[in-house]
TrEMBL record:
Record's keyword terms, sorted: 4Fe-4S, Iron, Iron-sulfur, Metal-binding, Pyridoxal phosphate, S-adenosyl-L-methionine
Keyword Iron assigned: yes
UniProt xrefs under SUPFAM superfamilies: Radical SAM enzymes
InterPro entries membership: Aldolase_TIM, Lys_aminomutase/Glu_NH3_mut, rSAM, rSAM_sf
Lineage: Bacteria, Bacillati, Actinomycetota, Actinomycetes, Pseudonocardiales
Protein name according to UniProt: Lysine 2,3-aminomutase
One Gene Ontology term of the molecular function aspect: 4 iron, 4 sulfur cluster binding
The keyword Metal-binding appears for this protein: yes
Organism encoding this protein: Lentzea tibetensis
């Protein structure tokens, strides 16, 4: 049985001793880890990262602090504090200031989409799109390892005002009964599969009641298949978890694991494939999504290999995201024009079975916007875009246009073409 062994910032010195990094480079990593949370585990470090390929190894880039994750001035400030062996207090103050400047809740997430029940805000839930309710279970707000680019990072650092989570299952049930338009509940985090099967069952079992006849699907957002496949194989409650999945399926609902896979290397270990097979055996569908990140997966060959391997394993490619405009933006940003090329090239390289995937998609304030491509229309070069999801359902699936801009990385960088934006 594999035992989960976590690594945190305290282990960085020892872990990076495997590399040829200079003392300055190692100090820079510690400086980043003082601001942005670092967490990894033995499986990721020993099975997913090829240490001979570091610093270019994609899973190393995905999970270990990178100097370019902080703006240069912030990095210099933290390095200086560490060099001077500043007090813990001084370090914390500086780290908090930098965190706040990194815009932790983009897209008006905290206020705009919070549902209300009898005049009370239900924090820990989001109801942005008519059909789908997002639920953030309190015990599921951490992960088996952290992705460097994660826009949920405020969930992991000790700032209560930055957190969004709940354990109010009754409120969830009451809200669902009042909102029969909701057909899908998406349990998310962090990673809900850090919870024990018992705790997860406390959230899921009530939803299986026939009272919730309008609830057609339950989704669980997770990276456990990638960062801790033993969750489904040898963890003490692995079987309980799989039996819970079976009960959801037996209730007549579609159960989807919205699995986060960033790179085909995550599928190389046999245990990852075995875990995926076990999940599929329960009748759950595994759908896969990930953002496009510079230095991790900004290569069409990586995406087509990923989508093909996932399809072989019976999983369904779902979304390729453009990373949101938060946190370490300079580190991960890939311009939309390049993202669109990467998506097109990768999509061309797979059979129709894997063309279930959509992207590149920006999850922005008005909705999920897909970049269909670049076109020359009436003598003007434009981005062709459409909403895959929108707060205003009227906007969904209607093409609109923006002036081509090779440097734009987000919706807010774009200027409308041929008339104003529809939102
Ligand atoms: C992406 C997302 C969903 C799910 O959208 P689908 O297109 O159904 O996958 C739901 N709520 C929010 C806030 C989202 O960002
Ligand atoms: S697994 Fe998801 S929630 Fe966890 S750190 Fe990665 S992106 Fe963030």
């Amino acid at each position: 049985m594999a035992r989960y062994r976590a690594y945190t910032a305290h282990h960085l010195e020892k872990l990076t001793a495997r590399t040829r990094f200079s003392a300055d480079e190692r100090l820079a990593m510690r400086a980043v880890a003082a601001v942005l949370p670092f967490r990894s585990n033995e499986y990721v470090v020993d099975e997913l990262i090829d240490w001979l390929a570091v610093p270019d190894d994609p899973i190393f880039r995905l999970t270990f602090p990178q100097p370019d994750m902080l703006p240069q001035a912030d990095l210099d400030r933290m390095v200086d504090l560490l060099r001077r062996e500043a007090s813990g207090n001084e370090l914390r103050t500086a780290a908090n200031e930098i965190r706040l400047s990194l815009s932790p809740h983009p897209g008006g997430q905290l206020d705009l989409n919070t549902p209300e029940l009898r005049g009370e805000h239900l924090s820990g839930m989001q109801h942005k799109y008519r059909e789908t309710l997002l639920f953030f279970p309190r015990q599921g707000q951490t992960c088996h390892a952290y992705c460097t680019y994660c826009f949920r990072w405020p969930q992991f650092v000790g700032e209560p005002s930055m957190k969004m989570a709940t354990d109010d299952v009754d409120a969830l049930c009451a809200y669902l009964l009042e909102h029969p338009e909701i057909t899908s509940v998406l349990i998310t985090g962090g990673d809900p599969l850090v919870m024990s099967a018992d705790v997860l069952a406390r959230y899921l079992e009530p939803l299986l009641d026939p009272r919730f006849e309008s609830l057609e699907s339950i989704r669980i957002g997770t990276k456990a298949l990638s960062y801790w496949p033993y969750r489904f194989l040898t963890d003490p409650d692995a079987d309980d978890l799989l039996r819970l999945f079976e009960r959801v399926v037996a209730s007549g609902r579609h159960l989807a694991l919205m699995a986060h896979f960033s790179h085909p290397n995550e599928l190389s270990p046999p245990v990852a494939r075995e875990a995926l097979r076990k999940v599929r055996e329960t009748g759950a569908v595994v759908r896969c999504q990930a953002p496009l990140i510079r230095g991790v997966n900004d290569d069409p060959a990586v995406w087509s290999a990923l989508w093909r391997q996932l399809t072989v394993l019976g999983a369904v490619p779902y979304y390729m995201f453009v990373e949101r405009d938060t946190g370490p933006k300079d580190y991960f940003a890939v311009p939309l024009a390049r993202a669109s090329e990467i998506f097109c090239d990768a999509y061309r390289g797979v059979s129709g079975l894997a063309r279930t995937v959509r992207g590149p998609i920006m999850s922005a304030t008005p909705g999920k916007v897909m970049v269909d491509g670049v076109a020359d229309v009436a003598g003007e070069r434009v981005f062709v875009l459409h909403f895959v999801q929108a707060r205003d359902p009227e906007l969904v699936n209607r093409p609109f246009f923006a002036k081509f801009d090779p440097a734009a990385t987000w919706l807010s960088d774009l200027e409308p073409a041929f008339g104003p934006f529809p939102f």
